[in-house]
Amino acid sequence: MTVIFIHGIGAGAESFHDVTPLVPGSVALNLPGWGDEPWGGEASFAGLADWLAGKIDALADGEAVIVGHSFGGMLALETALTHPGKVRAFVAIATSPAFGGRDDSFKTQFLAARLKPLDEGMTMPELARGSAKDLEARGVSEARVARFVDSMGALPEKVYRDVVRCLTTFNRRADLERVSQPALCLAGDDDATAPARTMEKMAAAMPQGEYACIKGGHLLPNEAPEAVAEAVNAFLAKLD
């Protein structure tokens, strides 16, 4: 069984550096624009789902299990809905089924918070160091923090801006009941970005949804890779 890991906005495939060795048959991919993966211009969830379906064709025998963190979990959900024959099952880690609130005010505030520092001259390496402060506060090892900072810091600013904008377009809440695959929603008990309660409701809305919660915040693959791998392996063991 091929298991494909997809990262969130920030660090690339390196986010799963300490997870994939613990999950048999797994490979972590960079999204377009990260690492050596070519950026195709303006991102959309539909386009990225097509990209991921192509990767499944190249790496797996017809179908794969997708494990996505945050933005990557949204992409896993999108691909499960739009390319159901390619996705055997998926795991959404620290993920919400839709972006934002009931109106555009949250979107406006979110974009300002994420992009204003860059507008004011901050560099991506500086932004990455700021994003890593939560990891440091949670006692994550220096090596893991350094991998996160190096990966996010190397991301071209234009790619970061584009994918942040893409994130704000996501809304599959009304489609959860149409998800045909087994799905695990894996939450962090101290995640303010994708709260555990939201993920529990997300799992309940899917016909074959499961919910699990582990200790940690939003960056679970960096904070608790062993616990993430344990939860993923337990889920995989239930598949036919």
From TrEMBL:
InterPro entries the UniProt entry points to: AB_hydrolase_1, AB_hydrolase_fold, AB_hydrolase_sf, Epox_hydrolase-like
GO MF, one example: monoacylglycerol lipase activity
Pfam families: Abhydrolase_6
UniProt organism field: Albimonas donghaensis
Residue span(s) of domain AB hydrolase-1: 3-231
GO biological process: acylglycerol catabolic process
Gene3D superfamilies, per the entry: alpha/beta hydrolase (3.40.50.1820)
Protein name: Pimeloyl-ACP methyl ester carboxylesterase
Cellular component aspect of the GO annotation: membrane
